[in-house]
């Protein structure tokens, strides 16, 4: 661990200024990810800029949307009445992640930006293009049971680990980002970028950019949304495959749906192919399976994670079944 | 020291742990927290390579880092005179690297953070060689006739080959694999060393053997045993990984000498994966042949396990399972070992039995299925009425009752023997499985003392043994056993442990603590009786034969003429000293009731038995195994304390569920470094994985074993559980998983 300084700004502008004036500074929110990486030597910040005192922890609602402050804890969001009733997949996704203790301190903004659990990313003695661009990818020929099957490249096959972000992707959340001059909004799908050549670049944030809030629009389908997660143990465990789905079923036919996948892709994965395959179809297991097949057609397995293709299809079918049943109930 | 006022019950009472309050309030101080002012902090730098030689260690930058007091490396390590174990090389005795994570240097600094930071500034240059990490690597040295503790591991009785090929027999031959597992107790190992002058050493250590650690450190540093003191009031779980004298203990002591300051040296969680052992990988092939009546005609148990270049430990899966559990007409055991460039393995909860029972009890289930027999009926058909190993009668065996009681409680009769035939109302597959459990009853020689003091109108007893409490309840049962032996209310009894100055004790391993302590305390109580009788002149007990005397309600009383008695208080008073003391006699000379287990001419075979019954539910679409119910019935002799005994069994069951479903220490095949050396990636079961666990005991005292009649209970709970789960998974789905852990991908 290297020496670093610590600051505790009280306004967003001050936080952004402080970060920009220290080249290797990092924001510190709940710290559950950044402190872990600090101890492992994965990050070596010159300063930690504590953003827990900026008043960003509010959750507000209006007729169009729910807006979660970036500093709201995962627990606060998951147990918020409005979110539980109108965006059940989001509450379920958050509660399916980490542990109660972690969720009590982890924040919404931090959750979106958490880094992969790839073992080689966390081990500073291994080659890793994401941690050290150009050093190679130890996972390609190494332990890759938990790695991605969608959106991978020869440079990196790591999954984005967040559960919450998967639900937010299905619910088409919008990220509010503040820089030195303005607050801009970016749809979550455009927020995460594909790896391409540089897997260190995971999103559109520029240096100093501060996530201030996440806004989720109310839709006809958000209330009929589910999050299903397959994992190696029943709690405190990242997803092997997960799916957030929201469906609008009318008279047995799917009028509209949104599907996002987790644990299988390099970013929270919006399943457009599956959605396209489902719209207008009857809500039947056969249609669900066909949609899953369509989405996973482009999946690429590594040596140890081939099972994820079938597992992911089943997770999708399960989530779709459950969401469709919510509509009936 | 725990507040023992609450220990109100004698043996058999569900007494709460006397140390419970200290633990949940944080008042209990574990080794790393030893109350030593001004102790500096050590941090160990691990090797990043798995095989090779250290070319150079440059500590120049690290030495100048803020707070650094000293840096210990192989270059300035004093020569040790033995005592170390676990890793068979003396710590820091050469420049060779034999496994990833091997200790390379210890930085001592004024804070743990500074020590850790300085360690990152040490530059180590290696000449690196390619490690063998993959068990299928054909260049891994293979030993087909290994010995363990000097004994060969192969065994042959009868002719398995012809039994298997005889007409009309049903044969099952299958391969079962179990991965490397890591113990992961909550408390990470730690040693705190304090030198008093040049020749006196005080150490706080998280150990499974206070006396062993004491002897080892004295020997290693050439100190007089009386000049070394080892304390261990609490061990935060061990499961075997604190049973050897691992390198860090000696490094802590050497670092304290170099730094001229007391040093606290804890291992990190990651180092717990590489520097205090693991359960080795095993590949087992079971061949079993039976007639139509299910009687075993032949059993062959082949084991391939992995050893490490600097370890002699072998996971001997067959010795404690196929050798003792069933009555088979012929038996063959073959063990091979492969040397791989991995950290040393070691004892882990029911070493050998845990993987061994997975293989054997899975194979028996497969055989039952082939024979269309009920799995319990098959086991009953092969019940060993005498020990198959020694041919001696069992001291006390109630395995049949375990089956009956367990089946009844579990509702085994509702099991549909046809796999994949039963579903819950919400559409999940439901499966029932069972397996036997077994573990030997062992004694480690040791002593204890019992002292009687006057108190008020009566007496107070204080018993003691060096011993240690791994969180199992030794503090508590020590009081209970003493209370029973002296027939005093437990409130008048205290028990002390965790200090090498107390009478020497064996290790807490092999489920031997309770039984060994029972034997030592029983003998100490007898010695106390003899001491007290020395002062019986002029009392009704004057001149009485000691065999006719017993402790009875605060008195010594004649057994044949109960009215002849003397108050214990009066005898202590007459003795005129502060207390009267009884100490365990020389173990080789003394004979407890029945036949001493340690004697070569013991008349009996001593073994614990049990049975597990498991229900699983598995979603058709998402095959995540949920173990909804476990019923375990155990025959462990007399139950000293139903509460602590139950905790041991459910602890074993939970660990067994980890073995069955989630645990697997994984190494990168290129670097030999573990890829999951933390609690997020190494999956021990979490609360939500655990549902209904029920434990029953047969509770028949085994008085041939010791005067209390207890056998140990620490390990038997884990044996058989993984097989019971796998058998239930088969019953639920028709899929037989022979490769642990049973992760969802294997059931797709
Ligand atoms: C053992 C373990 C198990 C876990 N299991 C799961 C799981 O199953 N599923 C799951 O989804 N997650 C899981 N997590 C991850 C957990 O959800 C994240 O660690 C947490 O959400 C991160 O939030 P934080 O506030 O602590 O972020 P921090 O650690 O404070 O920050 C994370 C990163 O985000 C940056 N950052 C934070 N806030 C902002 C902001 N407002 N604007 C710009 N940058 C910002 C920080 O600079 C840092 O780089 C697990 C974590 C652990 C340790
Ligand atoms: S998969 Fe990505 S994160 Fe993992 S080692 Fe390769 S580059 Fe690094």
SSE topology sketch:
The complex is a heterodimer of chains A (329) and B (748).
Chain A: E1 5-7, H1 12-21, E2 26-28, H2 34-40, E3 47-50, E4 59-61, E5 65-69, H3 74-78, H4 81-86, H5 88-95, H6 100-105, H7 108-113, H8 119-122, H9 164-170, E6 174-178, E7 183-187, H10 188-191, E8 210-217, E9 225-230, E10 241-250, E11 253-262, E12 269-270, H11 272-278, H12 285-296, H13 307-328
Parallel strand pairs in A: 1-3, 2-3
Antiparallel strand pairs in A: 4-5, 5-8, 6-7, 6-8, 9-10, 10-11, 11-12
Helix pairs in contact in A: 5-9, 11-12, 12-13
Chain B: H1 20-25, E1 40-46, E2 52-58, H2 60-63, E3 68-72, E4 96-97, E5 103-109, H3 112-119, E6 123-128, E7 142-143, E8 147-148, E9 151-152, E10 155-157, H4 160-165, E11 170-178, E12 190-196, E13 200-205, H5 210-220, E14 228-231, H6 247-259, E15 263-266, H7 269-274, E16 282-290, E17 296-307, E18 331-339, H8 353-371, H9 375-381, H10 399-410, E19 428-440, E20 449-455, E21 458-464, H11 474-486, E22 493-496, H12 513-533, E23 549-552, E24 555-558, E25 565-567, H13 568-575, E26 579-583, E27 607-619, E28 626-635, H14 642-661, E29 692-697, H15 721-733
Parallel strand pairs in B: 1-15, 13-14, 17-18, 21-22, 28-29
Antiparallel strand pairs in B: 1-5, 2-4, 2-6, 3-5, 7-18, 8-9, 10-18, 11-16, 12-13, 12-15, 16-17, 19-27, 20-21, 20-26, 23-24, 24-25, 27-28
Helix pairs in contact in B: 8-15, 11-12, 14-15
The structure holds flavin-adenine dinucleotide and iron/sulfur cluster.
């Amino acid at each position: 661990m290297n020496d670093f300084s610590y600051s505790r700004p009280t306004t967003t502008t001050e936080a952004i200024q402080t970060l920009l004036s220290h080249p290797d500074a990092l924001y510190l929110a709940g710290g559950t990810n950044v402190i872990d990486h600090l101890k492992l030597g994965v990050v070596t910040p010159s300063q930690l800029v504590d953003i827990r005192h900026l008043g960003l922890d509010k959750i507000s609602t209006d007729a169009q949307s729910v807006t979660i402050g970036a500093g709201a804890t995962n627990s606060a969001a998951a147990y918020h009445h409005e979110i539980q009733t109108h965006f059940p997949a989001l509450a379920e996704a958050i509660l399916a992640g980490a542990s109660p203790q972690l969720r009590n301190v982890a924040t919404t903004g931090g959750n979106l930006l958490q880094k992969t659990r790839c073992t080689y990313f966390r081990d500073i003695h291994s080659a890793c293009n994401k941690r050290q661009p150009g050093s190679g990818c130890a996972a390609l020929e190494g332990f890759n049971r938990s790695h991605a099957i969608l959106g991978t490249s020869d440079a990196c096959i790591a999954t984005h680990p967040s559960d919450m972000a998967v639900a937010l992707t299905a619910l088409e959340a919008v990220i509010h980002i503040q820089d030195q001059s303005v607050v801009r909004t970016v749809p979550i799908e455009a927020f995460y970028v594909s790896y391409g050549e540089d897997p260190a670049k995971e999103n559109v944030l520029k240096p100093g950019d501060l996530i201030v809030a996440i806004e989720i629009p109310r839709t006809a389908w958000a209330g009929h949304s589910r999050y299903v997660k397959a994992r190696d143990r029943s709690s405190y465990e990242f997803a092997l495959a997960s799916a957030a789905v929201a469906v609008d079923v009318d008279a047995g036919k799917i009028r509209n749906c949104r599907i996002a996948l987790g644990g299988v892709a390099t970013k929270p994965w919006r399943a457009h192919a599956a959605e396209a395959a489902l719209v207008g179809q009857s809500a039947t297991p056969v249609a669900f399976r066909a949609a899953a097949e369509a989405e996973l057609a482009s999946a690429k397995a590594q040596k140890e994670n081939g099972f994820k293709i079938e597992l992911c299809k089943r997770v999708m079918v399960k989530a779709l079944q459950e969401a469709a049943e919510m509509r009936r109930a | 020291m725990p507040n023992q006022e609450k220990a109100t019950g004698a043996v058999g009472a569900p007494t709460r742990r006397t140390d419970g309050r200290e633990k949940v309030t944080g008042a209990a101080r574990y080794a790393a927290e030893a109350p030593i002012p001004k102790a500096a902090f050590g941090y160990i730098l691990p090797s990043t390579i798995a095989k090779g030689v250290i070319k150079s260690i440059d500590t120049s930058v690290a030495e100048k880092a803020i707070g650094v007091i000293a840096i210990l490396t192989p270059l300035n390590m004093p020569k040790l005179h033995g005592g170390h174990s676990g890793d068979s090389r003396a710590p820091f005795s050469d420049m060779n690297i034999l496994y990833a994570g091997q200790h390379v240097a210890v930085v001592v600094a004024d804070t743990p953070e500074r020590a850790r930071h300085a360690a990152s500034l040490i530059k180590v240059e290696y000449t690196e060689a390619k490690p063998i990490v993959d068990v299928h690597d054909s260049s891994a040295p293979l030993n087909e006739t290994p010995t363990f503790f000097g004994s060969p591991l192969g065994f042959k009785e009868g002719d398995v080959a012809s039994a298997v090929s005889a007409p009309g027999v049903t044969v099952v031959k299958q391969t079962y694999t179990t991965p490397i597992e890591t113990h992961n107790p909550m408390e990470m190992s730690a040693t705190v060393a304090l030198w008093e002058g040049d020749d006196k050493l005080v150490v706080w250590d998280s150990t499974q053997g206070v006396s062993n650690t004491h002897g080892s450190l004295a020997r290693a540093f050439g100190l007089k045993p009386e000049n070394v003191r080892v304390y261990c009031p609490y061990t935060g779980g061990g499961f075997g990984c604190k049973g050897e004298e691992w390198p860090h203990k000696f490094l802590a002591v050497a670092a304290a000498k170099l730094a001229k300051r007391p040093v606290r040296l804890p291992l990190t969680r990651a180092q717990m994966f590489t520097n205090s052992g693991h359960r080795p990988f095993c590949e087992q092939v079971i061949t079993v042949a039976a007639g139509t009546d299910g009687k075993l005609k032949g059993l062959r148990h082949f084991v391939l396990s992995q050893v490490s270049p600097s370890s002699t430990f072998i996971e001997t899966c067959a010795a404690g399972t196929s050798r003792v559990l069933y009555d088979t007409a012929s038996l063959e055991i073959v063990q091979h070992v492969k040397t791989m460039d991995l950290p040393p393995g070691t004892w882990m909860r029911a070493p050998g039995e845990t993987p061994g029972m997975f293989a054997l009890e899975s194979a028996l289930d497969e055989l039952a299925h082939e024979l269309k027999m009920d799995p319990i009926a098959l086991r009953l058909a092969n019940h060993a009425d005498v020990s198959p190993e020694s041919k001696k009668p069992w001291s006390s065996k109630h395995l049949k009752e375990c089956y009956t009681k367990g089946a009844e409680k579990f509702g085994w009769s509702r099991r549909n023997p046809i796999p994949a035939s039963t579903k819950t109302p919400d559409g999940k597959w439901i499966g029932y499985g069972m397996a036997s459990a077994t573990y030997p009853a062992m004694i480690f020689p040791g002593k204890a003392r019992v002292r009687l003091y006057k108190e008020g109108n009566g007496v107070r007893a204080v018993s003691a043994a060096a011993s240690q409490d791994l969180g199992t309840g030794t503090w508590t049962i020590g009081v209970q056993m003493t209370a029973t032996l002296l027939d005093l209310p437990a409130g008048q009894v205290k028990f002390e442990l965790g200090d090498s100055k107390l009478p020497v004790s064996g290790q807490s391993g092999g489920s031997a603590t309770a039984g060994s302590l029972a034997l030592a305390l029983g003998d100490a109580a007898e010695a106390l009786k003899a001491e007290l009788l020395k002062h019986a002149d002029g009392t009704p007990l004057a001149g009485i034969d000691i065999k006719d005397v017993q402790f009875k309600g605060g008195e010594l009383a004649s057994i044949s003429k109960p009215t002849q008695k003397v108050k214990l208080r009066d005898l202590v008073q007459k003795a005129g000293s502060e207390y009267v003391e009884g100490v365990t006699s020389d173990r080789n000379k003394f004979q407890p009731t029945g036949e001493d287990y340690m004697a070569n001419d013991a008349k009996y075979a001593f073994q614990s038995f049990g049975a597990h019954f498991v229900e699983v539910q598995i979603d058709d679409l998402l095959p995540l195994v949920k173990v909804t119910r476990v019923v375990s019935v155990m025959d462990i002799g007399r139950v000293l304390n139903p509460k602590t005994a139950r905790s041991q069994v459910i602890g074993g069951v939970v660990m067994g569920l980890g073995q069955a479903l989630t645990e697997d220490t994984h190494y990168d095949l290129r670097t030999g470094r573990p890829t999951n050396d933390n609690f997020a990636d190494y999956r021990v079961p979490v609360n939500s994985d655990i549902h209904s666990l029920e434990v029953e005991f047969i509770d028949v005292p085994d008085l041939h074993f010791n005067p209390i009649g207890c056998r140990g209970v620490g390990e038997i709970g884990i044996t058989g559980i993984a097989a019971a789960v796998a058998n239930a998974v088969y019953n639920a789905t028709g899929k037989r998983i022979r490769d642990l852990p049973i992760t969802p991908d294997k059931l797709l």
